[in-house]
Amino acid sequence: MISSKKSFSSVLHDDLASRWYIPAEVESLRSLYPIVVIINFVSLVIFILRDDPDLIFSSTMQIVVSLVIVLLLSKLNQGQRFIRDGVIAISGLSLLLSVLQFLSGPQIIIDYWIMGWSSIPALFVIYSVSKPIVTLWASGNQTTRSAELGLYRNRSVTRFHGKIFRHIALLHAVAFVILPILWILDVALSPGNSLGGGFFDSVTMEHFNQILSSESFWIWTRNSVIVSIGTTILGLALAIPAGYAFSRFKFRGRDYAMFSFLLVQMFPGVIILVPYFLVMKALGLLNTSVGLILAYSVTALPLCVWMLKGFFDTVPKELEEAALVDGCNQNQVFWRIILPLSLPAVAVTALFSFLAAWNEFLLALTFNTSEEMYTLPVGLASLISSTGQAWGDFAAASLLVSLPVVVLFVIFQRFLIEGLSAGGVKG
Amino acid sequence: MKRGLIVILSFILLLPIYHASEISTLEADGDIGYRQVGLIWSTDSPTEEGTIFEIWISNETIIETANATKHSQVMVGNVSGISQPVMGEWYDDCQYNFGDTEWIPVHRDLDGTAVVPPGTIGVNCTLTGIPSGTEIHLAVLLVNPSNESILSPSISSSSTSSDEEIIVIETSPYIFAIGSIALSIMILLFMLRWMDYREGRTTSRFAHIYIAPAILALSVLTFYPVLYGIWLSFTNADQSHLGDQSFIGIENFITVISTSGFFRVTGFTLLWSVVNVAAHIGFGLLLAMALNSDDLRGRSAYRTALLLPWAIPSYISVLVWRGLYEPAGALNDFLGTDLNLLADPNGARIVVILVNIWLGIPFMMMSISGALQALPKDMYEAAEVDGINKFSRFFYLTLPNLKSALVPLSLLGFIWTFNMFNVIYLMTDGGPNLDFDGPGSTDILITYVYDVAFRDGSYGVAAAWSVVIFLMLVVFSWTYMKKTNATEAVT
């Protein structure tokens, strides 16, 4: 009775180790190869757009081959050595195809990318599937001990592969983000208004000189600076007391007032645009900085109030109570204690409303239609319009305009994002 | 022999008749309307079929066409079977005559080019898009059927109607409305404060004063325009009825619903929003998970690089992408293709969606990143010990736990994308196929409202569109919240 129990447990033990064990390499390939198929599809689309019959043929073959590899990998299991051999053979075929594709001559950068995606995974398959540990597993000759060792080894291999996958995914995302930026740098630095051509083959500062010496650029900058600083000051003047009151006081109507701030955030800007325009027109505030300042500071107000309320909440109440006991009145507490303590938070809110006003396009386009009242967004957009295609000047100007903003954003990203999620998502 | 002589003789006789027409008079009139200049010219002889009049415009005297811009053109050709729209239906509208004083509207071929019949002597065009107050120079280039071109002398003119609207709006009702709103808010706050004071709440003595500026600004500059906009949607306000608009019931809403392409533009707006939000959340989640590892080398560098689309002003990114997609742009160089996606309706739709996806991922990535970091680590460790593979971990642990963050995020993203004006306006401006009356092929609701309000000047109809959009968003948000809450209650 006892012995039979023992043998049962040992059977279970063997069964578990070998049943659970799949080499991490095979697991990784199983999740990698569907992505390879997708990328081959993308390259097929590119080749079809390029109308290159040879490449279309070879890329179609690549898709078929990688689909076969996906199929074989899913069938690959213990004791199926012939499938393992099949995987290696087919990957060799895929490699051969990509070498042939390469020999036919890559023309541009993207060809190298496509070739990389058709050859490196195949190499990776051949390398990892022919490893001794995978061979042993696939041939079905592994012992319990080696399966256990393999399970142990899997942890580190999985982590290593995960890291590589992360890097590959992130590098692709970064390339997708960076390429337009590199391109605009190239346009800004190349002579004339050419949009294409090689990267950085001829460098000139003519567009920067032209923009910096053009009168309208400085007028737009002046307007933008006036509007943004005005918005920041007015917005803070409105938002700081309100945020403080919401954070500290209990008073009649508080809940209704806070709800009205939330409600405004849910209004889409579009419902306000037309009446806003008409009211501004009636008050004679079109084509003035004051109109935009009023509009922007109120648009940003709810978010600023919520951000500041969140910051004021973190200032300990005891400080105020102590000051009140010491004989300060409420106003002194606010000006002498709370405001200096929350200066960093106020700075972040100020930066937020400055950036919002600096980047706003729709209201500026609608309200300020005369050229000498354009802000930078509308002015820059007017460089690229149906009448003018001054791409070089636009590129230089946009680099000049966005560089300070991007630097500020990157430096203060943590605070800005925290503040935005406090105001945006909670609200 | 005799026949040859007749042929030669008739040639000699006919030669003067076949002499190519030239422009004999050219006049410009700057006093015909807002941003418009009228141009009237006549030829010394009836024009032949195949002649083209090109109108060139410049800041300086036109000596050759190299220093000028072509404004529009009128072709002389066969007009039978070509539509002849009434005056005012087209921009840059023209009329023609046969040397008398009877002006006939021009015909328009399928591309919208103005066509006049052979024998035309005089042409009278209304050129639009001329900035007021600046002097411009105009010339007409006459291109013969034999491709010889003769440039007329250059004349100068300027559009005299001022940029300011001709109609002066009565300011007092607005001042009165704003003043009474401000006054009533002040009285309300004062009453609340007095009630608090009577109850003896000492800490709140200043509370109402502190919130007064913000509440006042909000009511005057947000709630008042919203209510005003709702009222506008029931009036006949437009560029010529401003200040004396009158109540016309739901006529504007009927106009909105019966706009040709109402369902098309609504459908595309929905498609645009859903695809964008899905892509933002999908890619944002993917990148947030890729970044969510403590021992990832270069993590902060990746994060900063991936934040760039959010940090760069969106109008700049959009214009840069537009340059990339131009036929001569870098995309074709990069892919080795020869595409002009922006000229094709479906291509342009794909392009605008791709650009907006690029713009919106970082926000979602950062928001989801924050939510991911809040998830308990030991949950994943327990799952790993239990041998749960990573797909199951994602679907049974990560997603359900992120749901409370993803539901409001996706709703917020939906509302933002629904109202994303910059991308469409700057990439395609609703094009490539712009109908004269109705939304273009890449227009979404908000860009179309902009067109209705500020290109057509139909403020009442635009306000009705805004109300319709707002109602759509309210209905959508309500249903979405309801549905997601309902499933939460079940599970």
Description:
- The complex is a heterodimer of chains A (427) and B (491).
- Chain A is an all-alpha fold and 427 residues long.
- In chain A, 81% of the residues lie in helices and 0% in strands.
- Chain A has helices at residues 2-20, 24-50, 53-75, 81-103, 109-129, 132-139, 144-189, 206-213, 215-248, 254-266, 269-282, 289-313, 317-325, 330-341, 343-359, 362-367, 376-383, 391-411, 413-424.
- Chain A is flat, with a radius of gyration of 32 Å.
- With 491 residues, chain B is an alpha+beta fold.
- Helix content of chain B is 51%, strand content 13%.
- In chain B, the strands form 2 sheets. In chain B, strands 3, 4, 7, 8, 10, 11 and 12 form a 7-stranded mixed sheet that branches. In chain B, strands 1-2-9-5-6 form a 5-stranded antiparallel sheet, with no helix packed on it.
- In chain B, helix 2 (172-199) packs antiparallel against helix 3.
- The model of chain B has no long low-confidence stretch (mean pLDDT 82).
- The interface between A and B is large, with 105 and 116 residues.
Strands of chain B, count: 12
How many domains would you count in the coordinates of chain B? 3
SSE-based structural type of chain B? alpha+beta
First and last CA, distance of chain B: 106 Å
* Share in helix of chain B: 40-55%
Pick out its properties.
heterodimer, A: 427 residues, mainly alpha, MetI-like fold, disordered N terminus, B: 491 residues, alpha+beta, Immunoglobulin-like, 12 strands
Topology of this structure?
The complex is a heterodimer of chains A (427) and B (491).
Chain A: H1 2-20, H2 24-50, H3 53-75, H4 81-103, H5 109-129, H6 132-139, H7 144-189, H8 206-213, H9 215-248, H10 254-266, H11 269-282, H12 289-313, H13 317-325, H14 330-341, H15 343-359, H16 362-367, H17 376-383, H18 391-411, H19 413-424
Helix pairs in contact in A: 1-7, 2-3, 2-5, 3-4, 4-5, 7-18, 8-18, 9-12, 9-15, 10-12, 12-15, 12-19, 13-14, 17-18
Chain B: H1 2-14, E1 23-29, E2 36-43, E3 52-58, E4 69-76, E5 94-97, E6 104-105, E7 107-108, E8 114-116, E9 122-128, E10 136-143, E11 149-151, E12 155-157, H2 172-199, H3 207-232, H4 251-257, H5 262-291, H6 299-311, H7 314-325, H8 330-335, H9 345-373, H10 377-385, H11 390-418, H12 421-427, H13 445-455, H14 459-490
Parallel strand pairs in B: 4-8
Antiparallel strand pairs in B: 1-2, 2-9, 3-4, 3-10, 5-6, 5-9, 7-8, 10-11, 10-12
